Amino acid sequence: MKAVILAAGRGTRIRPLSESVPKPMIPVINKPVMEFMLDLLRQHGFDQIIVSTSYLAKEIEHYFRDGSRFGVDIAYSFEGYHADGRPVPDGLGAAGGLKKIQDQSRFFDDTFAVVCGDVIVDVDLTRALEFHRHKRAIATMLLKEVPRDEVTRYGMVETAADDRITAFQEKPSPEAARSTTVNAGIYLFEPQALDFVPSGQRFDIAYEFFPRLVEFEAALYGLPLPFTWIDIGRIADYWRATRMILNGEMNFIRMNGREMAPGVWGGINLAVDLDRVNIRGPVSIGSSSRIEPGATIIGPAVIGRNSVIESGARVESCVIGDYTRISGFANLFEKIVNGQFCVDCGGATIDLASAGYTFVVDDARERRRWTEDQRTLIDFLRLNAC
Amino acid sequence: MLNNREREPVPGDRGYEPSSRFEVVPADRAVVIKPNASRVDIEVAPQFRHALLQLVEQGHRSLVVDMSEVNFIDSSGLGALVSALKALKTQDRNGDIRLANVQQPVVALLEIIRLQRVFTSYASVEQAVSSFT
């Protein structure tokens, strides 16, 4: 079966994590978030997948390639153009992007799925397909129930008794909300649904395509299913997803690597002596990282690949990115360290490089050189603060 | 700001006028210095260090830094604080520098390198001054 992963978004709400990688490539437990969706599609028999890309498209293509490593065929649909030898993102909107694919090759010749590349879900797509076919729908939207006090964040979906979608309500107040089911960003379509999408122009899926289907009384259905659904939209969501996976609350996700000690998973080529570090799970350590004796890591925590946690460092409830050195002076609590940025779990960002904190957190490959002030601080911290 | 004069007046000099960058106010148990800058970085830190060291040289042993205007301090600003503390402790082991009105972004930076254990913080200048007995 065929599917499309929507991966063209810019991810502005999750900066700085999306500064150097597109949102679908943001790692959750050392794995790009889009890979979770790819796993789900494969498990339910979707094996021909087009990934619609735009912003930092090459990052996605270079990781997923032709899909053979993941047991599927992957092709890409770039939304944008080239100028001065460089790709310029120019997204078409999700529906406009689908129409572009169809206009080019008539790729969609049977029921197909469309999913977002930046959510982690454990939805039963096979059951959704049965519903879609039983209803003879041309489009089915998976719905997720949310608490009433959270409706202000979402587009709400109203359905009739026969599950037909009748109206949408964008980010209403809790009092004004006419439903508490939201669009989960997972859809099934028949190819003829794309007849409602104009060719060659930007066309949004949520704000234009679905309202048009409702307007023309097309067979658009909503299927409320109980499932775990985490949108990696904001830093707080990212942190919640990471914590839930580490704590085993999303048991459909297997941890990468080997369980070296209860609750401590590690990749290959690790330098860590578990008898000489203070480590308390759940912790995931990426391949080729070094944890020095005397370091402390308190879970839930993720240490990226090729990173170094020096002796004396304390890392508690943190996500440390790849190629990151955490010096022995560091005391990190509820932080996401990504390149030169340190973000607390509420989203406040510290630019560590601008603060001259490279003696605390740095790229693990960087040659170390201190300014006089940094040297003063290092000498003082060795004697007084560690 | 440094200008063409031979040297910038510092606290204690005749004719010293609190510059736009620092205010120095003697209190009963301590002297209070307040950076009037939102960023204590490489631009401000040399004068900050100089001002703090001058207070130490003048014999002040209880210093309060009012951080109410500061929402960013880099390693050079922290280096200035640490240099002054070291100079102070050399003169008098019981001398100390304490902080008041520390803003959350600065608290975060201090905590990352455990400096909050070294520089005790108080919610107000009055509380910081009173802490010196």
Précis, in short:
Chain A is an alpha/beta fold.
Descriptive overview:
The complex is a heterodimer of chains A (386) and B (133). With 386 residues, chain A is α/β, with parallel strands linked by helices. Chain A has two domains: 2-231, Spore Coat Polysaccharide Biosynthesis Protein SpsA, Chain A (Alpha-Beta Complex), CATH 3.90.550.10; 255-384, UDP N-Acetylglucosamine Acyltransferase, domain 1 (3 Solenoid), CATH 2.160.10. Chain A has seven helices and 30 strands. Chain A has an eight-stranded mixed sheet with strand order 14-15-18-21-24-27-28-29. Chain A has a seven-stranded mixed sheet with strand order 3-2-1-6-11-8-12, with helices on both faces. The radius of gyration of chain A is 23 Å and the shape is elongated. The N and C termini of chain A lie far apart (57 Å). The mean pLDDT of chain A is 91. Chain B has 133 residues and is an alpha/beta fold. Chain B has one domain: STAS domain (Transcription Regulator spoIIAA, 2-Layer Sandwich), CATH 3.30.750.24. Chain B contains four helices and seven strands, in the order βββαββαβαβα. Chain B has helices at 45-57, 75-91, 104-112, 125-130; strands at 22-26, 31-35, 39-40, 62-66, 72-73, 96-100, 121-122. In chain B, the strands form two sheets. Chain B has a five-stranded mixed sheet. In chain B, strands 3-5 form a two-stranded parallel sheet. In chain B, β6, α3 and β7 form a beta-alpha-beta unit. In chain B, α1 (45-57) runs parallel beside α2. Chain B is globular. The model of chain B is unreliable at 1-7 and 14-18 (pLDDT under 50). Classes of the chains: A alpha/beta (386), B alpha/beta (133). At the A-B interface, β26 and α7 of A face β5, α2 and α3 of B.
What would you say the CATH architecture of chain B is? 2-Layer Sandwich
User: Strand sequence of the main sheet of chain A, in spatial order?
Assistant: 14-15-18-21-24-27-28-29
In CATH, the architecture of the largest domain in chain A is: Alpha-Beta Complex
Enumerate the strands of the largest sheet of chain B in spatial order, edge to edge or round the barrel: 1-2-4-6-7
Judged by helices, strands and strand pairing, the structural class of chain B is alpha/beta
CATH topology of chain B: Transcription Regulator spoIIAA
**Class of secondary structure makeup of chain A:** alpha/beta
> How many strands appear in the DSSP assignment of chain B?
7
Biggest sheet features of chain B: 5 strands, mixed
Provide the CATH topology of the largest domain in chain A.
Spore Coat Polysaccharide Biosynthesis Protein SpsA, Chain A
For the record, give the distance between the C-alpha atoms at the N and C termini of chain A, rounded to a whole number: 57 Å
CA-to-CA gap between the ends of chain B? 35 Å
Strand content of chain B: 15-25%
What is the ordering of alpha helices and beta strands of chain B? EEEHEEHEHEH
| Rg measurement of chain A, Å | 23 Å
> What is the CATH H-level superfamily of the largest domain in chain A?
Spore Coat Polysaccharide Biosynthesis Protein SpsA, Chain A
Instruction: Tell the overall outline of chain B.
Output: globular
The rough form of chain A would be described as: elongated
Find the CATH superfamily of chain B. STAS domain
